[in-house]
Each structure stands twice: as C-alpha cells, then as structure tokens.
C-alpha cells in the first residue's frame, strides 16, 4: 500500500486537485482510496462535500477522520501564492513535494519536486513514477 497526504490550508484547491488526479491515477491502472480529515462534525457522502466529490471522481473507497484519529506520514503540500498563507515545507521534513501552479514562485528555495496542480496528469505521473517513496511499511513503526 502507498500512503500519500495532500496537505494545505483551506481553499487552496486540494479537493479539486484530487478530483482531477484520481481519474488520472485510475487511467494508469492504480487503485485509489481516500482519507479525508474533518476539522469538525463529519458529513459523509453528502452532495458537494469532499468525500462525495472524491467518490464521484472514482475512488475505490473513502474514509473520513476526525481530529482525534489521524496520522499523516508522507505529504504533498498544496500551496498557492495568491492566498498569502505561509508554506509548511521549510519546517516539515515529511513534505515530499510542493504542488503549486507553474506561475507561482516559492517564498523559500526547496529541493523538492514541484508538480503543477493545474496539470493533474503530471501530478499522477509524478506519483506513479515515485511510488516507492510512498510505500507504507507498518513494521517500520513498531
């Protein structure tokens, strides 16, 4: 199993990116499941909600987690300069890549891949080509 987390502040386009990347991964023959972090009460599979949108995009299964139960292992940070929000990657060694539009410049240099969230096929290709980086080995956490 591979575990990837897309993280970032609200309204950065994480769900929209996933709606576009999920079909691109499925087109490569890769099964996709989703865990959605909920900051407050859970509304599962309600039209327009994130888990419903992920299901509509074609995930095999979807799971929502509350603040009490969530583990983030390896992350892809989603960031857009227009939001004015800070970046996480300089202080978070678990950020494996930064998804940002090609027109945006990072506020600090980063030696991490930069897949363009406006090109979901490129994001899916990067994930497929770097799948070994996201292998989940439960024994490593014992």
What can you see in these coordinates?
This protein is an alpha/beta fold and 142 residues long. The chain has a single domain, classed as P-loop containing nucleotide triphosphate hydrolases (Rossmann fold, 3-Layer(aba) Sandwich). 23% of the residues lie in helices and 15% in strands. The chain has helices at residues 14-27, 50-57, 120-129; strands spanning 5-7, 33-37, 61-65, 75-78, 95-99. Helix 2 links the parallel strand 2 (33-37) and strand 3 (61-65). Helix 1 runs parallel beside helix 2 (50-57). The longest helix is centred in the N-terminal third of the chain and has 14 residues, at 14-27. The radius of gyration is 15 Å and the shape is globular. The mean pLDDT is 79.
Low-confidence stretches: none
Share in helix: 10-25%
Give the SSE string: EHEHEEEH
In CATH, what is the homologous superfamily?
P-loop containing nucleotide triphosphate hydrolases
CATH architecture: 3-Layer(aba) Sandwich
Query: Biggest sheet: strands side by side, in what order?
Result: 1-4-5
List the helices and strands and how they pair.
Blueprint (H helix, E strand, L loop, with lengths): L4 E3 L6 H14 L5 E5 L12 H8 L3 E5 L9 E4 L16 E5 L20 H10 L13
Parallel strand pairs: 1-4, 2-3, 4-5
Provide the descriptors you would attach to this structure in a database record.
142 residues; alpha/beta; Rossmann fold; 3-stranded parallel beta sheet; two-stranded parallel ribbon
């Amino acid at each position: 199993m591979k575990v990837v987390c897309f993280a970032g502040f609200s309204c950065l386009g994480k769900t929209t990116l996933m709606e576009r990347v999920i079909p691109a991964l499925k087109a490569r023959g890769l099964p996709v499941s989703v865990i959605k972090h909920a900051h407050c009460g859970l509304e599962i599979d309600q039209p327009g909600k994130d888990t419903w949108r992920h299901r509509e995009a074609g995930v095999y299964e979807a799971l929502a987690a509350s603040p009490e139960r969530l583990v983030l292992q390896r992350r892809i940070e989603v960031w857009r300069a227009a939001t004015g929000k800070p970046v996480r990657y300089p202080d978070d060694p678990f950020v494996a890549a930064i998804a940002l539009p090609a027109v945006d410049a990072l506020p600090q240099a980063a030696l991490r891949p930069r897949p363009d969230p406006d090109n979901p096929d490129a994001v899916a290709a990067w994930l497929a080509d770097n799948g070994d980086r996201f292998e989940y080995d439960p024994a490593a956490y014992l």
